[in-house]
Amino acid sequence: MLKIHGLNAWYGESHVLHGVDFHVAEGEVVTLLGRNGAGKTTTMKSIMGLVPRRAGSILFKGRETIRMRPDTVAKAGIAICPEERGIFASLNVTENLMLPPVIGPGGLDVATIHALFPNLKERASSQGTKLSGGEQQMLAIGRILRTGARFLLLDEPTEGLAPVIVQQIGRTIRELRARGFTVLLVEQNFRFAATVADRHYVMEHGRIIDMIPNSDLATSMDKLHTYLGV
C-alpha cells in the first residue's frame, strides 16, 4: 500500500532524513520505533507532504506522491493524527469530530466512533480543549476515522497517557486493523507497540537501521534496549 524508497528531507539547511526505505502492506499495523530526534515524526510529515523539501519516492497504492500538496495526499486516502493532537479550542467535541471533510467511502459513522470511544459521546458538548489528555487523543483519532481515509498515521498516540487509556487505544488499533484499516504508528513504547503491530522498523539518525517482525520481538529485546536506550 505504501512504499518509501530513498526518502530524504530537510528543514531549512538541516538534513533530517537520509535515504529512508520501508514499506507497509494493506491491512498491516507497522511501527516506527526510535529515540527522540531519530526522524520518526519527520517521516510521517513527509508522507503527508508537510515537509517542504523532500527527495526520493513515496508510492501510495502505486501512485507517486512526493510532489503532491498535503490536501491532495489527504484526498488520496491518507490521514494523520499528529502528536500535538490539534484540537480546536473554539469548538466542542462534536464540532471537532465533524470538522474534517469526508474524502471517500469507508469511514466510520459517528455512532461507531462513539462505540469505540464512549467518552466522546458523554462529552459531546464540552469544549475540545477542556477534555483530559486521553479524551483529546480519542477525539484526535476519532476525527480522522470519519474521513474515509484507510491509511492512518498515528504519531505517539500513547505519550503521557494513563495505562487504562493506553489499553483502550490499543484495543481501538486492533479493532481498526480488523476493519481493514492500515496503520503506521510512531512509538517509543515498544511494549505497547508489541500488542498491536505486525512489524517494527527502527530509526536512528534519520535512517532505518533494522526491521523486526513482531513474532521475533521477544528474542530481540536486548537489541531494542540498545537501539532505544531504555
Structural write-up:
It is a single chain. The protein is α/β, with parallel strands linked by helices and 230 residues long. It is built from 9 helices and 10 strands. It has helices at 40-48, 70-76, 93-98, 110-116, 118-122, 133-145, 163-178, 190-194, 221-228; strands spanning 2-11, 14-24, 29-33, 53-60, 63-64, 78-81, 151-155, 182-187, 199-204, 207-213. The strands form 2 sheets. A 6-stranded mixed beta sheet has the order 6-7-8-3-9-10, with helices on both faces. Strands 2-1-4-5 form a 4-stranded antiparallel beta sheet, with helices on one face. A hairpin with a 2-residue loop joins strand 1 (2-11) and strand 2. The longest helix has 16 residues, at 163-178. The mean pLDDT is 92.
SSE topology:
Blueprint: E1 2-11, E2 14-24, E3 29-33, H1 40-48, E4 53-60, E5 63-64, H2 70-76, E6 78-81, H3 93-98, H4 110-116, H5 118-122, H6 133-145, E7 151-155, H7 163-178, E8 182-187, H8 190-194, E9 199-204, E10 207-213, H9 221-228
Parallel strand pairs: 3-8, 3-9, 6-7, 7-8
Antiparallel strand pairs: 1-2, 1-4, 4-5, 9-10
Question: What is the H/E string?
Answer: EEEHEEHEHHHHEHEHEEH
Number of strands: 10
The number of helices is: 9
Structural class: alpha/beta
Helix content: 25-40%
Q: How would you sum up the global shape?
A: globular
State the distance separating the first and last CA atoms.
32 Å
Supply the key terms.
single chain, 230 residues, alpha/beta, six-stranded mixed beta sheet, four-stranded antiparallel beta sheet, 9 helices, globular
